[in-house]
């Protein structure tokens, strides 16, 4: 797997990704493709054997409204192509994303914000060494989110 710049073609694709409930809150269908393709927004494409299988996101776009974030850690989020979820790819995908960000941004720590019911994502980040530091309810969707940090 590798991380590459997200092109307009990737953006047009990712803007159609829709997850089965209860993961629907991770749908990207509400965002204009132009935002994904603008590198300053922090979105990158994840390829496997040349196929576009997911995206990673770094910085402000990886934050969830309703939490008082500090700048001590780099926020990261992401997703796999919906039909590729639940097949054990998530940990490798996220590890590649973290390694890429370590080299490019050299953050003191990483932070992720995951809905409390997203057991699948919580298992993946736990396996990668993230520990929960807080919880909050987002006014945007009313879901409870767990904030987790990983220090190298
Ligand atoms: C979150 C995500 C990256 C996880 O990757 P994945 O490849 O789908 O996850 P896996 O298939 O490896 O499953 C991870 C673990 O959760 C378990 N799991 C899978 N589905 C589950 C479910 N519905 N309920 C409980 N556990 C579940 C798996 O058995 C596995 O457990 P294990 O590590 O003990 O074997 C991926 O599902 C995704 O992109 N989801 C949509 C977007 C999203 O949720 N983003 C999170 C924002 S940080």
Quick overview of this protein structure:
The chain is of the alpha+beta class and 152 residues long. It has helices at 8-14, 33-37, 90-105, 119-127, and strands at residues 2-5, 43-48, 51-58, 74-80, 109-115, 131-137, 144-151.
If you had to describe this structure to a student in words, what would you say it looks like?
With 152 residues, the protein is α+β, with helices and mostly antiparallel strands. It has a single domain, classed as Aminopeptidase (3-Layer(aba) Sandwich), CATH 3.40.630. 24% of the residues lie in helices and 31% in strands. The chain is built from four helices and seven strands. It has a seven-stranded mixed sheet with strand order 1-2-3-4-5-7-6, covered by helices on one side. Strand 4, helix 3 and strand 5 form a beta-alpha-beta unit. The chain starts with a strand and ends with a strand. The model has no long low-confidence stretch (mean pLDDT 92). The site of coenzyme A has 21 residues, from strand 4, helix 3, strand 5 and helix 4.
Break the fold down into its secondary structure elements and pairings.
Elements: E1 2-5, H1 8-14, H2 33-37, E2 43-48, E3 51-58, E4 74-80, H3 90-105, E5 109-115, H4 119-127, E6 131-137, E7 144-151
Parallel strand pairs: 4-5
Antiparallel strand pairs: 1-2, 2-3, 3-4, 5-7, 6-7
Bound molecules: coenzyme A (COA).
Coenzyme A binds near residues 77, 85 and 124.
Small molecules bound in the structure, each named once:
coenzyme A
Q: How do the helices and strands follow one another from N- to C-terminus? A: EHHEEEHEHEE
Task: Specify the overall morphology.
Answer: globular
Number of helices: 4
> In which order are the strands of the major sheet placed?
1-2-3-4-5-7-6
> Total domains, how many?
1
Output the CATH topology: Aminopeptidase
Q: Roughly how many Å apart are the termini?
A: 21 Å
